[in-house]
Amino acid sequence: MSSGPQLAWVTVAAPPILAIVVLSLWGCSKSESTDPPLSSVDPSVGTEASASRTERTGVLLVSHGSHSPEWRKMLREFHESVEPQILAIPGIGVVKSAFMEYNEPSIATSLKEFDQEGYKDVILVPLLLTVSSHSFDDIPTIIGAKADAKSIMTLKAQRIERYTPQARVTITPLLDFSSLLQENLPRRIAALSQDRSREGVVLVAYGDEPYQEEWEKFFERLDQVVRKETGAAEVSHCWCGHIVRYSKAPTTNAIRQILSQHDRAIVVPVLVACDDFFQNQIIGGAVEEVGAGDRVAYIPDAILPDPKLSEWVVSITRQTRARIHGRDARGEEPTP
Fold first, then answer.
1. With the C-alpha atoms ordered 105, 108, 114, 115, is the resulting torsion angle positive or negative?
2. How far apart are CA 13 and CA 324, in angstroms?
3. Structural domain boundaries of the chain?
4. What angle is formed at CA 271 by the lines to CA 262 and CA 273, rounded to 5 degrees?
5. N or C: which end of the chain has fewer CB within 10 A?
6. Is 256 in contact with 236 (CB distance < 8 Å)?
7. Dihedral of the alpha carbons of 47, 52, 54, 56, in degrees to the nearest 10
8. Is the CB of residue 3 less than 8 Å from the CB of residue 167?
9. For the packed helices 69-87 and 307-329, what is the interaxial angle rounded to 10 degrees?
10. CA of 335: how far to CAs of 257, 326, 332, in Å?
């Protein structure tokens, strides 16, 4: 969402081309999914020698993972919708999906496949809202780009495999550099609005304990943007994730605070996909507990499906592929 900061890439050097897109906001445990892996290869790649794959980039869409079938369905549909657009980028050879936890294929499993297939570079595109322990600590630790002691212990306890690929890994900026939420949230709020001047909005997000200050700053800016774009009388936010121990109380209190000042409250989940535990049990449970009837407007939806998310993935993948190609053409080594 940021317009001021410049896009920042982090490249981790390793001895062969691949892009990881992280889609999620929460979670953490042992892999368990019967869903078949999503993978599609540019038809031209199959007829080329393996050596030619080192001149192509693979794309790995990585989400956090969830026990929710609906959540996994939304991510599979996202993969299927964005895959042809990514494969149309010159130099991209394959698109796959993987999960941080709960489900297979895992990040480690997928990276091993890319190594076996001879891909040279990994473009890691975290589709996380803003800096978090997942984006800054866990994922870099999983791929061997960082040795964060706390993450290593957590990953080991949750039986999440770590793997350092032979491919070079380039991590792209997070979603707070895109305009996705600036357009997504006002659209969803407008669908529930009756009289903007007499309504307040509650944005409910996962949150992150180690990076609480960064999340607060990000959502304070987002509150202001949403208020300006929607004309709502007030916009506030609260957390529903581990930082509040998955309690519905913060959401309940935020709704009550809005209703004490305004006629109606519009509640919007700022979560990538739909998960029964978050959208229904926590946020929906809070709405039910408030018991204000039609004074509270709520739909258990998510950021997905949204074409803007696809556009962001395609755009940042194209930019990163161009940076890799330019770097290689100049004979430069990646800078960590």
1. negative
2. 12
3. 10-176+306-329, 179-298
4. 130
5. C
6. no
7. -70
8. no
9. 50
10. 48, 14, 9
Structural contact between residues 186 and 101, judged by C-beta atoms closer than 8 angstroms: no
- pTM of this prediction? 0.84
Mean pLDDT for the stretch of residues 97-120 = 87
Residues 6+ apart with CB under 8 A from 208: 131, 132, 133, 134, 214, 215, 241, 243
Joined tokens for residue 303 = 């950021």
Per-residue pLDDT of 312-333, as tens digits, reads 999 999 999 998 887 666 766 6
Q: Which residue has the tokens 């997000």?
A: 205
Percentages helix, strand, coil for the chain (3-state, rounded to 5) are 45, 20, 40
Cα–Cα distances in angstroms (integers) from residue 278 to residues 71, 100, 232, 286, in the given order: 11, 18, 25, 11
| Rounded alpha-carbon distances, angstroms, from residue 262 to 9, 201, 235, 245, 295 | 43, 10, 11, 28, 9
**Overall fold of domain 179-298:** Rossmann fold (3.40.50)
Contact predicate 305/78, CB 8 Å: yes
Element (H, E) at 85: helix 69-87
